[in-house]
Each structure stands twice: as structure tokens, then as C-alpha cells.
Amino acid sequence: MGPTNLAQISKQEVVDFVKSFDYVFCDIDGVLLLGGTVIPGSNAFISKLRKLKKRIVCVTNNTVFSANVLEKFLVPFDVPKADVVNPSRAILEYLKKINFNKSLYVIGTNAFKNSLRNAGFNLIEFKPDKLDEFMGVLRTEVKNVEETEADIGAVIVDMDINFSLVKAERAVILLTTRNDILFLSGMSDHSIPFPNKINVLGSKFYIDAIEDITKRQSIKFAKPSLQLKNILNEDFGVTDSGRVLFIGDSIDSDMGFASNCGYQKLLVLTGNANEDDIKNWNFPEEYKPKYFVHSLNDFSELLSRYNIFGAFDMTRLKDLELVTKEDLTGFINSVQYVCFDIDGVLLLAGKCIPGAQECIARLRKLDKKIIFASNNSVAFVATLKSRLSEFNAVEDEIVTPNEALIDYLQDINFLGDIYVIGGRATKIELKKVGYNVIEFETETIEESLIELRAECVQAYERAQEIGAVVLDFDLNFNLLKAQRAITLLNANKDILLFSGARDDIGPLSKELIALGPKFYIETIERVTKRSSIDFAKPSMLLKDVIQDKYDIDDPKKVLFVGDSTLTDVAFANQSGFQSLLVLSGTTKADEVANWNFPDDHKPHYYVTSLKELSEVLEKHNVE
Fold first, then answer.
1. How confident is the model at residue 194 (pLDDT cuts 50, 70, 90)?
2. CA dihedral 94, 96, 98, 101 (to 10 degrees)
3. Quick one: the chain helix, strand, coil %, rounded to 5?
4. Which domains does the chain have, with CATH numbers?
């Protein structure tokens, strides 16, 4: 059986997997970076792991760059050079540990050589690196190496962008003529991944060749060597290798290394490995990881979608999918009424959100009274009923802000005229119950301050006949309408000011959002120094309508299901209802993970969608 795609396992399996490790040792090239460029989503993934209190260490075979340059590359990941381990560091620590005090011959990059020099080691350089093309010159070079007076104690072979046959010949001569010379090797990858599916040839081919010719096995300090494991465990205090997750893109070096060390393994397909490697496994069986992902961005999105953060910190938000059957049954049985927001919960861009219809049907079978309470006052109740036909909604189950507004006006025996910035439905509903809604003749004017002043004068002259201004969502809102409202409110301090939905945004689709009325409602309030009477969620006027209309004696018997923390959850909590947040509309998983809302906006539970709620009820056989 091959590795499993992490994106296809259940939420509980993801939670269990993330809980199974404390350390994340992560390769760099092909995992975090590609050709020095951040792989999309990889930095967000590392940030999320830190929030989950995971210890992040970058483990790379890359010795082409110095520690300082690597640290600059890793700035987007906030990884200091102290948390970067590569063969250069491992070799340095090894040489210090054995008190090495002789000279070195090194095939490697200038960055690698300089790190050795900076640590106090003496490096021997032979010149030139290019010879005339005939064997006599090569024999002379062999003699020069053999006769060198330097006390060379070790040959180190690593990745060298300017590798040449001459350099390899010198290493072979030293290793075959002096058995006391140590033979160390660093980076030994077959290739280095670059963008556009380009792979740069690595150093493995010439390290293998030198080992083969000299019949000497080098002490290896790159993955998959256990020398690197010892340094990692010692430097970072690892006591249980099973609590380490190693993430890499190479099956040979990364998965092989993790397997040798007893670490857990996660293979990503943004570098060397690909899906064909997984399907047609031609590597040692023990190298096979339990899971793979196409990219760290996929893993990052998985953490957000399932809000793994909530699963780790249940004092913040409770994931309904993770509660026990007993708690779930008790929760559902405590509810007699289930009140749903519409947009972002049941519908998105006018279309039924997958699983929502089945969820409503299941709740009806459980004898729950269904209520639809939207902040949408643009649509008529009959229109909302038609939109909700898939849920078998009847008009009596639908509550709108317009009902709350009219109930309040009737309760206070309001008799004046009303100026409305809002939809046609609001105006018609007010007219139906006998209120006079005034209209101004012009919707737009010439771009002239004189014209604007004339409109303001007209509004000023009508101010005394108007008793209320209503601000709500208006698809045709413009500056002229706002200016009229401001003029009326400033001219007559007795005018009542009402406001409907204060949403800053509204979901149009999974990717698109619409600008809500919050910005112009708050602007008019600020300019007029007036506070409006809210009649949409989270206003208590709507709560009174719901309780009176359905004879609800105990608000705790109501479960309010919504997609907005600022309107739906706040409304539910202030009303004394129980609250369930769904992540299919306005509120996203990242916002739940990075909770920056007031405590009174915290829901009792959350689910990713109503489909998940339906599945949870079915799984636990709640009846």
C-alpha cells in the first residue's frame, strides 16, 4: 500500500497526526524554497505550526550558501541561523569534538570553505584547477600533491559548483597514498530542484566515484547519514525520535534519513519527488512515508479548513465534530428551535450550499422548529420563500429586519413620514402598513456644488414633515442620498434614525465578497453625531420579534446558526440563544484560528458547513 494523500484523510486523523509530533525538521530546497524563491503557502504553513507550539528546525543538505545567506533566504519563515542545520555545521561540530588540528583539503563552495576558515581550520589550496589536456601534465600534478609538505589530516568532499576532474584527482591521490587521512563528505544529493522543473546536478556522482576508486567510505554528514541525527538530537534536545516529523521532497535523502533516524515522515511533491515515484515505488520499503502532500500550502489549507488550532485549544472555540456522542446528544436535545441565517449558511450566490438541504431535512425529522432569520431586507418575504424552496420553507418560518422595524414603529405609535435609503422591499413593506415613504425626484445630479446645494436646500425644507430616516442596504446608494439623510437629521433633531444590516461585507461566492452598508451607515452617524436604532442582527428588536412570533418562553431553547461572528453570533449570545458558527460564508477558518473578536462573539460551537453538522448527527445516530 502506497503513501496516503494527507488532504484525503478525515479531520480526526489530521488532528491525531498533528498531535503526534512536537518537532518539525524541515528540508529547505524543494520544500520551502525553489531556486531561492518562497514556494507559495510554505511560510504560512510554518507560521501555523509555530502557533501549534511545534519546534521548527530547518535541515538542509545545501552548503552552497553561507549560514548568513541562508538566514536571509529564510526571513519569510522567521528561522534564525541557529535553527538551521546543514553538513557544514555538522562537519564543524564533528571536527571540534575530535579536537582536529591538522590541515584540510576541501572540494566545496567558497561559502563552505570560509565557514571552516572562520572556525580556525587551515585549508590547503592547489593551483591551478585547470590543466593542459595531456597526461604528462596530470602526472606532474600527481607528483605535486604527493610531495606537498602540508600536514593534511582530512579530505572533505562537498557540493562544488566549480567541480572539476582535477580536484577529484587530488582527493583520490591523498586518500590512496595516506591511509591516516580522514575522508568526510557533505552534501551528496543526486540533484537540486529549481523552478520550471529544472534539476541541477548534485555532488553524489563524484562523491560516489571517489569512494569507489579509493575503496574508502566517507564519514557522511548529509542526509541520510546518522551523523546528522546525533547533532540534531543533541543540539535541540530530542529525547523521543518518534515525536519528530521530518518533511522533505527527496525520497532517497529525506525519507531515507527520517527512516534511519526513527522520525515520522511527510513527503511533499514540490521538489524532487513526484506522483509517479509514489505510484511506482522503486525505493526501499522502509523509506515509504505514511503521508504525502502536493505542497505545504495544501497542508496549511487543511489546518485552516479543519481549524486544527481549535482542536488544540478547546478553551477558544469548540469544534462540534470533535465532541462526544453524549455531549452532542445533550446539546441537540436542549434545542427546540433552530434559527438559520440564510446567505453564507444555506445559500451562496443564490445557490444551495452542498449539504445544507440535507441538514435542514434531518433537523425537521428531529422535530426541530425551523426559523429563517436573515439580515436581508432587500428581498420580499415571498422572494425569500422562493429562494428557500429547496428547504421546504413557508412564509411563517421567515423573519426579516423589516418586521422588526415595523413592529417597533407600531409599538411607539409612530405617525410621521419616512425617508429610506434602502431596497424597494423595505419601502413597500412600510407602505403596506400605512406609512408614507417620501421620495425625491432626482437620483443623480450634474457634477456641480451648486446643484448639490440646491438638493440640500430641498431636503432642508422638507425636514419638519419627516419623522424617521432609515438606513439599510441599497444597491443604488450614492453620495446624494447620504447628503439628503445628513441634511434631514441635522435640520430636525426630532427625526428618529434607524439602521438595518451593518455588514461590512457579504459573501457572493466562495471567492467573491460584496461591500456591505456598514461604511455609509457609520459615516452618516459620525457626521450627524447621531446613534441609530438598529433593527437587524445583532439588534434586540429582531430578537423580540422572533420570541413573540413563535411564543418562545426560554431563549436557551433556540440555536442560532450563522456565518458572521459580528452579526449572527453576537446576536445569538446577546439574545441568550445558543450559537453555532459555520465557516461557509463570511467568517473564514483563518479568522477562527487567529481569534481577534470580542469574547461575547465567541460561539458555543462551530462547524465548517451544515454538511458537516448533518454528517456528525448521522455518525452519532442522534435521534
1. low
2. 120
3. 45, 20, 40
4. 1-84+224-306 (3.40.50.1000), 87-221 (3.40.50.1000), 308-413+539-623 (3.40.50.1000), 414-536 (3.40.50.1000)
